[in-house]
Design goal:
The protein is an alpha+beta fold. 29% of the residues lie in helices and 32% in strands. The chain has three domains: 3-210 and 294-389, Nucleotidyltransferase, domain 5; 212-286, Alpha-Beta Complex (Actin, Chain A, domain 4); 395-538, Substrate Binding Domain Of DNAk, Chain A, domain 1 (Sandwich), CATH 2.60.34. It is globular and about 80 Å long.
Amino acid sequence: MSTYGIDLGTTYSCIARLDSNGNPEVIRNNEDDSNTVASVVFFENENNVIVGQAAKENIETDGDRVVQFVKREIGKRDTRTYEFDGKTYTPVEISALILTRLKNLVESQGGTIEDVVITVPAYFGLEERSATKQAGELAGLHVLSLINEPTAAALSYCARQFQEDRTVLVYDLGGGTFDVTVLKMSMTQNNSGRDVQKITVLATDGDDRLGGKDWDDKLYNHILHACCDDNGLTPEEIEAETRQDIRSKVEESKRKLSKKQSAKVRIDVNGSRTEVVIKRTDFEQMTSDLVAKTMGYIDKTLDKVPAEAIDTVLLVGGSTYMPMIINAVEEKFPGKVQQHDPDQAVAKGAAIYASMLVEEVGSLTAQGDETSGGEVAQAEQLTSKFTVEDQTPRSFGPGVVDMNGAKHKYVLENFIKIGEKMPAVFTKTYYPLEDNQELVRLRAFENMSTDDTLIPCVDEDGNPQATDPAHNVKLLGELIVNLPPNTSRDTPIKVTFKVDASGVHVEAVNTKTNETFETFLRTESDIDVAGSAVHQLRISAD
């Protein structure tokens, strides 16, 4: 089959497909003798860019030409760019290089890729999701959809050892992101009356800037200061080459500490050999705050789904190999913890989901094309036993003028609330602010609030604001709705928001002319905030 699932990770990435028997399998990386590809890019020169383990091996000697951990930057505001040999690269373009490496891995083994599903942290917002999809398209991939990483992991688990009516908590600690998601696994019937296994997301939380890298940074600083103490130096006096040497040995030391009680590191410091012995107990103590942070997210999630309702806990992500993680989760959920294929489960689940989507398309095609029946039947045999119901990662809605009261207010109306079933759709009718208005600037926002409205959502300069920093209001973009001459202020403008795993679609319809305007939105950087109080929509027709 030419349909694949991709786990685009912070530190390592993985690609999988379904074999001829419908079982998910990871594409082996024979060059690195691994099932994964290191998410590292080395710009050797203007004619040669290396991705994978070979790139990672250059961190020590050419660290200034190596890019890693780019997943933490993708889709973020004011993110950094990278310049090599006179060319500037964005996080999207770096991610596209990693995805191209995975694509080439398949093609080098005689395969072809037509459709893919790429995984994202459940806590990613629209900008991160849109950027991830853009990276896939830039790599020459047809991105069917995105799927949340914990949901993909649960889908892989469900395919292997499904048990009816199980409530599962997925603890997903990757190289750079962390998610905790509670899902319900049950049996239901699809539209054809066939029994299928259903996965329903009940609650999710997490942090897209918390992951194994943070443990690495703590260990790096420990080794660095040990080298300083042993040689009577300050951190500023440690040469760049020595720092790179320390960094290159951190991951190996962390892996050793997952199997042994201590690990030994030898570092050359200004011509002198320094030996640092790291005890597992010391490593656990210096990173205890990070473990506690993940447990805090679990506690927040359990406010929505009580702990006694959890039947199974799945540990997913390479960082869950650390004994401190296993012990902490086991202490909270004694006897319920399973470590399910931590490095590959997400990619395998994405492969299953990709085949499910292709089956849906194939089934529709088969209704009008008898020749495609064989392929559709095979797809149904492989993937029709599953259905997935996920949740919205944020709240979404437009910025509009509230005419009620003595003072008019510009507010954010939350159409779709965080935690709603996806795809989620909401429609509401608004009106131009003034008679003879030439256009409407329909602004779309995302946030972390479940309030019906937020006040204010922009300041006098048009910049996104929130009454509480926890709301995390973001201006996603602007849809321009052109109005015909002599448009009256009582003209209904029907606005629709639709949210799915890939992002947000916004549509505005002038109901008097039936003219439709739809996304995608202009980015915030393209928006002219001058005159922010005009060219808006208002809530009521009064």
